[in-house]
């Protein structure tokens, strides 16, 4: 965890503060209505910082309207043109993300720094393995076993040096790659060499299935190492899925308790209720719930309540009846056809006041 803190809108990251969950819209930023609608959906799912692409002036100008209609900090993602970064700052971006290597001359980056400093807008230096500088002169004091990771971190350190020379310290860093080992090694090395907050993510991780696995492995390792101040899961899917996955990764690694964890059995010949259908129904029902809860759905009473004894609420089947249990203790035995309804009633009692 970084020692330094950075304030993005109303959220402070780094320095042991909560690890914040971020996502990115995939709408046309110029389409304010659609972009705001997607951000609202992300907010409802628990997104705490949102990034939008700013590929042209019209998008940069649209930020003003977007920001006035949302409740979470807005981050502008800029490539190539420093004027877009300046315009984004003028239109209220709470943070900007640039890869200084593709902005062009140092003078152009200095211009961005000047505006960001005046507006107290932090900058994320986002180094990506796919778009590295051709020449890096920075000598790393320590190195990783992974060559690309070394190169990524050396580029990053060179950028940091430049920003610091220009008296700018309001920085967040990221070192993304779609290769888990490369990415993990780069973040580990950067964590040793700097104290700035780190935004972690495995970039272009893939589809909802493979991307979740890749992100869970990569981000899981980093989080267990105590690395990461904000997190983004990149998926080729609805960005709402990124939020759900990010929270689950934080929860499983014990870095942040958030939302409902479903404990469900794999089913077997003893199964007496439709675990698969019910588990996915409950998962959908509890998306966007922030209260940390464990809900168990177990196929039979033989092992169900015992194996899920840590669950706040659980259900399991039996030949003629179903049971509802809390903390491993059966609280209700009900005819099988009525048990799911009763379970949902108990679940709603638990979730009362926590629905957004
Ligand atoms: Fe089978 Fe019961 Fe275990 Fe589910 S909880 S896998 S039904 S033994």
Secondary structure topology:
Layout: E1 5-8, E2 11-14, E3 20-24, H1 32-45, E4 49-53, H2 57-68, E5 74-78, H3 82-90, E6 95-98, H4 106-119, E7 123-128, H5 147-165, E8 171-176, H6 180-193, E9 199-200, H7 210-224, E10 230-232, H8 239-252, E11 260-264, H9 275-285, E12 293-298, H10 304-307, E13 313-317, E14 321-326, E15 329-335, H11 336-351
Parallel strand pairs: 3-4, 3-10, 4-5, 5-6, 6-7, 7-8, 9-10, 11-12, 12-13
Antiparallel strand pairs: 1-2, 13-14, 14-15
Helix pairs in contact: 1-2, 2-3, 3-4, 5-6, 6-7, 7-8
The structure holds iron/sulfur cluster.
Task: Please give a structural write-up.
The longest helix is centred in the middle third of the chain and has 19 residues, at 147-165. Strands 8-7-6-5-4-3-10-9 form an eight-stranded parallel beta sheet. A five-stranded mixed beta sheet has the order 11-12-13-14-15. Helix content is 40%, strand content 21%. Helix 1 (32-45) crosses helix 2 and helix 2 runs parallel beside helix 3. It has helices at 32-45, 57-68, 82-90, 106-119, 147-165, 180-193, 210-224, 239-252, 275-285, 304-307, 336-351, and strands at 5-8, 11-14, 20-24, 49-53, 74-78, 95-98, 123-128, 171-176, 199-200, 230-232, 260-264, 293-298, 313-317, 321-326, 329-335. The protein is α/β, with parallel strands linked by helices and 356 residues long. The model has no long low-confidence stretch (mean pLDDT 92). The protein is built from eleven helices and 15 strands. It folds into two domains: 5-252, TIM Barrel (Alpha-Beta Barrel); 260-351, Sulfite Reductase Hemoprotein, domain 1, CATH 3.30.413.10. Helix 4 (106-119) links the parallel strand 6 (95-98) and strand 7. The protein binds iron/sulfur cluster.
């Amino acid at each position: 965890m970084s020692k330094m803190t950075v304030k993005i809108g109303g959220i402070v990251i780094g320095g042991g503060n909560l690890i914040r969950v971020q996502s990115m819209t995939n709408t046309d930023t110029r389409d304010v209505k659609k972009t705001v609608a997607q951000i609202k959906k992300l907010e409802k799912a628990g997104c705490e910082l949102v990034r939008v692409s700013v590929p042209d002036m019209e998008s940069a100008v649209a930020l003003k309207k977007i920001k006035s209609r949302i409740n979470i900090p807005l981050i502008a993602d800029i490539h190539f043109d420093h004027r877009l970064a300046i315009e984004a700052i003028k239109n209220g971006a709470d943070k900007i993300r640039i890869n200084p290597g593709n902005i062009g001359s140092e003078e152009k980056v200095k211009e961005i720094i000047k505006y960001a400093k005046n507006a107290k807008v932090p900058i994320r230096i986002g180094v990506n393995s796919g778009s590295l500088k051709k020449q890096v002169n920075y000598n790393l004091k320590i190195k990783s076993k992974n060559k690309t990771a070394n190169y990524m971190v050396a580029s990053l350190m060179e950028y940091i040096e430049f920003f610091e020379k220009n008296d700018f310290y309001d920085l967040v860093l990221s070192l993304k790659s779609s290769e888990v080992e490369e990415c993990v090694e780069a973040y580990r090395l950067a964590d040793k060499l700097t104290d700035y907050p780190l935004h972690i993510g495995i970039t272009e991780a893939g589809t909802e299935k493979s991307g979740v696995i890749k992100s869970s492995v990569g981000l899981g390792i980093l989080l267990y190492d105590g690395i990461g101040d904000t997190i983004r899961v990149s998926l080729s899917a609805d960005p709402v899925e990124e939020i759900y996955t990010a929270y689950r990764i934080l929860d499983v690694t014990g870095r942040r308790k958030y939302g409902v964890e479903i404990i469900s059995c794999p089913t077997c010949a003893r199964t007496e209720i439709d675990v698969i259908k019910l588990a996915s129904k409950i998962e959908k029902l509890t998306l966007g719930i922030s209260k940390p809860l464990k809900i168990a759905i177990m196929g039979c009473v033989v092992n169900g309540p015992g194996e899920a004894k840590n669950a706040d609420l659980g259900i399991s089947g039996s030949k003629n009846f179903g049971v509802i249990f809390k903390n491993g203790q059966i609280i209700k035995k009900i005819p099988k056809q009525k048990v799911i309804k009763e379970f949902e009633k108990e679940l709603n009692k638990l979730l009362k006041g926590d629905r957004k």
